[in-house]
Write a structure and sequence with these properties.
Helix content is 54%, strand content 20%. It has helices at residues 14-25, 45-50, 55-58, 63-67, 83-89, 135-222, 228-263, 266-270, 273-288, 306-327, 356-359, 365-376; strands at residues 30-35, 40-43, 94-102, 108-120, 123-133, 291-297, 331-339, 342-349, 380-385, 391-398. The longest helix has 88 residues, at 135-222. It starts with 13 loop residues before the first helix and ends in a 5-residue tail after the last strand.
C-alpha cells in the first residue's frame, strides 16, 4: 500500500509517511484525521470502506457533515455538540459507544469511536479518530439482554408458580389437618352417643335386671317359711317377675343389635354391598319421610374387595346424610350401575341445592371426606348443584369383577 493511497500530507517525510501508511492499513479499525476545521486530512481504507466511500472521496470533506450529522433517531446533530470536534476544541480525548456513523447510502451503523487531539509545539492542530462498527456487538448484547430478560421472566414465573404451589400445598395441608380434626370429632361424638345409649338404655335395663334378680333371690330364701298357700302365691309372682325379666333381656338384645348395626351393619357381611346399600336407602327415606326412586343394575358376579365395599358404603351414608341435613328435599333418586368398567353410584334430590362456593368451602368436611375416600379408591366424586335446583352427587370408581 503506497502512502499516496492514504492521502497523507504532501510535506510529510517519506519514511514517516511509509511507516504511518503501513500502520494505518494493518488495522481493521477505521482511522481518520481532521484539521481544526473538521476536514479530513487522512483516512485508511478500512475506515473509508465502512463509510461506503473510496479514500479519495473522503479527503478534504468535513467529517461531521459527512458521517456524523445525525443522531441514531435521525434528528440533527450539531457539530458544536460533537465529541470528536471537542477533542481538539477543548484538547480533551473522548470515547463513545452510544452513537452511529452514517454511510454514503444514507444508512447508519452503530459505532464505537475515540477521538484524541493532535498537539504540535504545544498547539492543537486537529484530532485523530479511530472507529469500529459494533453492530454485531450491539446485536449480540441485545440478544444477551433479551435472553437475560427472558430468563428473569422465567425465574419470576417459576417463583410465582412455586409460591402458588406452596400456597396450594399449605392450604391442602391445612384442610387435611382440619379434616382429620373433624373426623376425630365425628368419631368422638359417635363414641359419646354410643356410650350414652349404653349407659341410658342398656345400663338401666341391667340395673332393672339386677334388682329383679335380687328380689327373686330374697323371695326364694323366704319360700320355706311360707304356708303352702302363700308359697303358691309367691311362685305366681316369681313367674310374673321372670316374664318381666325376659322382656328386659329382649330389649337389651335389641339395643345391642341396633348399636352394632350403627357401627357396622351385619347385612354388609351377610348379604353384601348391594343389599346393604338398598337397606340403608330404605331406612333413610323411612326416617326422613322422603319419596324414593330406586334403580340398581349391577351384575350378580360383581363384587368389590372388603375395604372398597366399606368405603363405598360409608360414602353412600354421607351422601344420604347430606340430603337429610341440607337438601330439604321431598324426593330422592338413587341409581347404581356400571359403565365403562366403572361403578357409578348417583344420588339426586329435588332440594334447595347449593352454591359451588359452599361445596368447595374449607369447612365442607363431609364433601372433603367423601372425595378423599373416593381418591383412595382411585375414583372421583362429582357434584352438580345449583341453588333452587337440587343436587346430584355421583361416585365413580374402577371395578373389580370376580372370575
Amino acid at each position: 500500500m503506497s502512502a499516496s493511497a492514504l492521502h497523507l500530507p504532501p510535506n510529510a517525510p517519506a519514511l514517516w509517511r511509509e511507516r504511518l501508511g503501513l500502520l494505518l492499513e494493518s488495522t481493521g479499525e477505521g482511522v481518520f484525521g481532521i484539521d481544526l476545521a473538521g476536514d479530513c486530512v487522512f483516512i485508511n481504507r478500512a475506515g473509508a470502506r465502512m463509510l461506503g466511500l473510496a479514500t479519495g472521496e473522503v479527503m478534504g470533506r468535513n467529517m461531521h457533515a459527512l458521517t456524523h450529522h445525525s443522531h441514531p433517531d435521525g434528528s440533527p446533530y450539531a457539530d458544536s455538540d460533537c465529541p470528536i470536534f471537542n477533542a481538539f476544541r477543548s484538547g480533551l480525548p473522548c470515547r463513545v459507544d452510544s452513537e452511529v456513523f452514517w454511510r454514503a447510502d444514507g444508512t447508519a451503523f452503530a459505532v464505537e469511536y475515540s477521538s484524541h487531539p493532535i498537539v504540535e509545539a504545544g498547539q492543537v492542530q486537529g484530532a485523530v479518530v479511530t472507529f469500529v462498527d459494533i453492530t454485531e456487538r450491539k446485536r449480540a448484547a441485545g440478544e444477551l439482554q433479551r435472553a437475560h430478560d427472558e430468563l428473569a421472566r422465567a425465574n419470576d414465573e417459576l417463583e410465582r408458580r412455586v409460591a402458588a404451589r406452596t400456597q396450594e400445598l399449605s392450604q391442602a395441608l391445612r384442610q387435611l389437618r382440619e379434616l382429620s380434626a373433624y373426623s376425630e370429632q365425628v368419631r368422638e361424638d359417635e363414641r359419646t352417643r354410643i356410650a350414652r345409649e349404653v349407659h341410658d338404655e342398656l345400663g338401666s335395663l341391667l340395673v332393672a335386671l339386677k334388682m329383679d334378680v335380687n328380689w327373686l333371690h330374697k323371695r326364694l330364701g323366704e319360700q320355706g317359711e311360707r304356708s303352702p298357700e302363700a308359697a303358691g302365691d309367691m311362685r305366681q309372682q316369681m313367674r310374673c317377675k321372670c316374664q318381666n325379666m325376659s322382656r328386659l333381656i329382649e330389649n337389651a338384645v335389641d339395643n345391642v343389635g341396633r348399636i352394632i348395626t350403627d357401627l357396622r351393619p351385619s347385612i354388609l357381611d351377610h348379604q353384601g354391598l348391594w343389599a346393604a346399600l338398598e337397606w340403608q336407602a330404605q331406612e333413610f327415606v323411612q326416617s326422613a319421610e322422603l319419596q324414593l326412586h330406586w334403580q340398581m343394575e349391577v351384575p350378580e358376579t360383581l363384587h368389590l374387595p372388603e375395604p372398597a365395599a366399606i368405603a363405598v358404603f360409608r360414602i353412600f351414608q354421607e351422601m344420604l346424610s347430606n340430603v337429610g341435613r341440607h337438601a330439604q328435599a321431598s324426593v330422592i333418586a338413587i341409581r347404581i350401575d356400571t359403565e365403562d368398567d366403572q361403578l357409578q353410584l348417583r344420588v339426586q334430590d329435588n332440594g334447595v341445592g347449593a352454591t359451588r362456593q359452599a361445596l368447595e368451602a374449607p369447612t365442607a368436611y363431609g364433601v372433603m371426606g367423601m372425595r378423599e375416600r373416593a381418591r383412595q379408591l382411585g375414583g372421583q366424586l362429582h357434584i352438580t348443584s345449583e341453588p333452587g335446583e337440587g343436587s346430584c352427587l355421583q361416585l365413580s370408581i374402577p371395578l373389580e369383577v370376580a372370575p
